[in-house]
Design brief:
Layout (H helix, E strand, L loop, with lengths): L1 E6 L5 E8 L5 E5 L5 E7 L5 E3 L7 H6 L7 E2 L5 E2 L3 E4 L2 E4 L8 E2 L12 E5 L3 E8 L10 E9 L4 E8 L5 E2 L3 E2 L2 E2 L13 E4 L1 E7 L5 E7 L11 E2 L9 H6 L3 E6 L5 E8 L4 E7 L3 E5 L7 E2 L5 E2 L5 E6 L14 E2 L5 E11 L1
Antiparallel strand pairs: 1-2, 2-3, 3-4, 4-5, 6-16, 7-10, 8-9, 11-12, 12-13, 13-14, 14-30, 15-29, 17-28, 18-21, 18-23, 19-20, 19-22, 22-25, 23-24, 24-30, 25-28, 26-27
Length: about 350
């Protein structure tokens, strides 16, 4: 189902595409920013609960600065110093996070109109032409993002692109999940699990040092389910610098596998995260402050948690990290799945 989602400041008409499955799940995606606007899950009482933070119309996403539901690229997370070297040439990017580049820099992918290539009740495919030099990155590339809602209650996000020149590609989804409902309280009482034995240590500007730190015996240990807020206030370097959880975990294994899980006892809704990428940023919404959201909701600090699958931050500057360099003519192709169940 396609409906009007408002008009941008430039006069562009945005639409909202609703997908449904046989189990009563619904999701909604907009062609503005390829953003994930709604994820509606039946709770244990049979009521539909919207579990992602967001806005009522395109103008909210246009004005928003928190990346709600955003498709982020060309390179998610941070690139230290706002520049990188590739094939002997230095490329300068937007320094939009102190002197660093965050989420590709401007113009952001989630502030652009995407072209809808296909849409039906089960999937919507969107495309964005990113020219050579876009955000400072080399090589033109047509980015394709497909959202599919399966009857296995999976929100499957497939990213694909073939650059015309060697470049960096590392796309992610920046949805904030609250499994008690987007308008409920913070997520600190909800539980999370991350399939990782180590995380990437970062400096005060969230740029990795290159060091992998074992989670064992630290507040970063989410190898078994625990309340998100149990240790978030601990006097531990990573949590002090990040003002809570905002770190990349080095996921166990390779290939497509489970990365994380989240659970709300209040609704009985559980989410499992799957990816084929090496890392995942777990971010607890530490910087949300009285944000006007959907349906009159006012979002506050830590009202949602992000599970951003990715190559490690600043991997282009760290030889020991698997890098996001994609060669000319080669396919960047990756899948992330958020799978839901309810009691």
């Amino acid at each position: 189902m396609k409906r009007d989602f408002g008009t941008t400041a430039k006069g562009e008409q945005a639409f909202l595409y609703t997908l449904k499955n046989k189990n009563g799940m619904e999701i909604a995606v907009s062609d503005y920013g390829a953003v994930l606007v709604k994820v509606l899950i039946p709770d244990k009482a049979g009521n539909l609960v919207d579990v992602v933070l967001g806005y009522d119309d395109v103008n909210g996403y246009e004005a928003g600065t928190l990346y709600f539901g955003a498709t982020v690229g060309r390179v998610a997370n941070r690139i230290g110093g706002g520049s990188f070297e590739l094939n002997g040439k230095t490329y300068m990017l937007t320094q939009n996070d102190n002197k660093n580049t965050l989420h590709g820099g401007t113009p952001y992918y989630d502030k652009r109109m995407w072209m809808v290539e296909e849409a039906d009740e089960g999937h919507v495919s969107l495309a964005l032409h990113s020219p050579d030099g876009d955000q400072g990155f080399p090589g033109a590339v047509d980015i394709h993002v497909t959202y599919t809602l399966t009857d296995e209650n999976e929100v499957k996000i497939h990213y694909h692109g073939i650059p015309e020149a060697d470049t960096l590609l590392n796309l992610t989804n920046h949805s904030y999940f609250n499994l008690s409902g987007h308008a409920s309280f913070d997520v600190l009482g909800q539980e999370a699990m991350i399939c990782a034995d180590a995380y990437t240590r970062a400096d005060a500007e969230s740029i990795p040092t290159g060091e992998l730190v074992p989670v064992d015996g630290t507040p970063m240990d989410f190898r078994t389910m625990k309340p998100i807020g149990r240790e978030i206030g601990t006097d531990y370097e990573a949590l002090v610098l990040g003002q809570g959880y905002d770190h990349n975990w080095a996921l166990r294994g390779k290939g497509y596998r489970q990365a994380a899980a989240m659970y709300s006892e209040q609704t009985g809704i559980e989410m499992k995260v799957y990816t084929d990428l090496p890392g995942m940023q777990f971010y607890t919404g530490n910087f949300i402050e009285r944000e006007n959201g959907k349906g009159g909701a006012i979002y506050g600090k830590r009202q949602g948690a992000c599970f951003e699958t990715q190559f490690f931050p600043d991997a282009v500057h760290k030889e020991q990290f698997e890098g996001p360099v994609v060669k000319a003519g080669e396919a960047y192709d990756t899948v992330t799945v958020y799978q839901f169940s309810w009691e």
